[in-house]
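#struct-pred
JK: can someone run the complex with NAP? inputs below
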Amino acid sequence: MQAKEICVLGGSGFVGSAIVNKLAAAGYIVRVLTRRRESAKHLILLPNTKVLECNVLDYKALNNALRGADIVINLLGILHQTKGQSFSTIHQQLPSQLTKICADLHIPRLVQMSSLGASRNAPSQYLRSKGAGEEALNAARDVLNITIFKPSIIFGRGDKFINLFASLIKTLPFILLAKPNAKFQPIWVEDVATCVVNSLEKSATFGKTYELAGPKVYTFKALVQTIMQTLKTKRPIIGLGDGLSYAQAFFMELLPVKLMSRDNIRSMELDNMSASAFPAEFGILPTALESVIPQYLINDTQRGDYDRYRQSAARF
Ligand SMILES: NC(=O)c1ccc[n+]([C@@H]2O[C@H](COP(=O)([O-])OP(=O)(O)OC[C@H]3O[C@@H](n4cnc5c(N)ncnc54)[C@H](OP(=O)(O)O)[C@@H]3O)[C@@H](O)[C@H]2O)c1
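RT: done, structure tokens with the ligand placed:
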């Protein structure tokens, strides 16, 4: 039987790279759509993997790029809005357009990456727009085989969240922590990728939405303490009340590099944890954060450099 062809939107990113590696290893033919080929250059050496430049927000261009695919995986997501890229365009309009294009082109299978807590009534624009995207997909469940994943924060080599706090711990004398009691249930990027890849041809997952969360719930403060323990570096943590959390985020929004916004703080009003057990369908148990983060936080060693080199050369 001919291998299925999978088109991945957002395949160059943190989660996308883990998924594309697993797809290539599983023998699929993979098409990665990117705005700039350069962003996906770490994937071009993978077997049966093509990187195509495409503006996925242009209906016609996307239609052409998806032609002939059997499965579409949409991983596009942004944490901060900028000129020309709004939450609504990326999180709502794109999934809606994807359902139309998949139906037109007779592509039967669509997998969408949403976020834990996403819903129309969520406290932040980010989560509300992700919720609206889920609704657009749910409306097409009669015509397409759709699966939606809703992960908590995702950790792993190259993540933004754990690595950001590791850098802050290394450079600052103390940590001013917004929303110290906010709760998270972090999940390993490789576990997320395994679930996505295992779902593709499993009909039991069609029409379903899965929350993906790790084995342990942490408060934000406990998570930062865990990173400190891993780095063997102690810093005082000054937890900020709600008013100061929003004030700090307001000033961070003025920085050229987007670290934290008031919308991100609003997302933390909601505990980012799953009410259900890890889905049994995917044949794995989620991996503990403590067993993974030392591999990339304590890696300013030759071994770490070697691992990074191997990863970028896609040899595992
Ligand atoms: N990381 C987490 O902790 C986490 C937690 C929950 C949910 N998620 C969801 O998981 C998905 C993947 O997240 P990630 O952490 O892998 O994100 P990422 O590393 O930022 O990757 C996102 C990808 O989206 C593409 N993209 C971004 N803006 C775009 C735009 N305006 N037009 C076209 N493409 C655009 C980028 O591709 P190019 O630059 O190559 O075009 C990039 O590869 C997202 O939907 C995110 O909301 C992530």
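RT: quick notes.
The longest helix spans residues 87-105.
The longest strand covers residues 145-151.
JK: thanks, will look after standup
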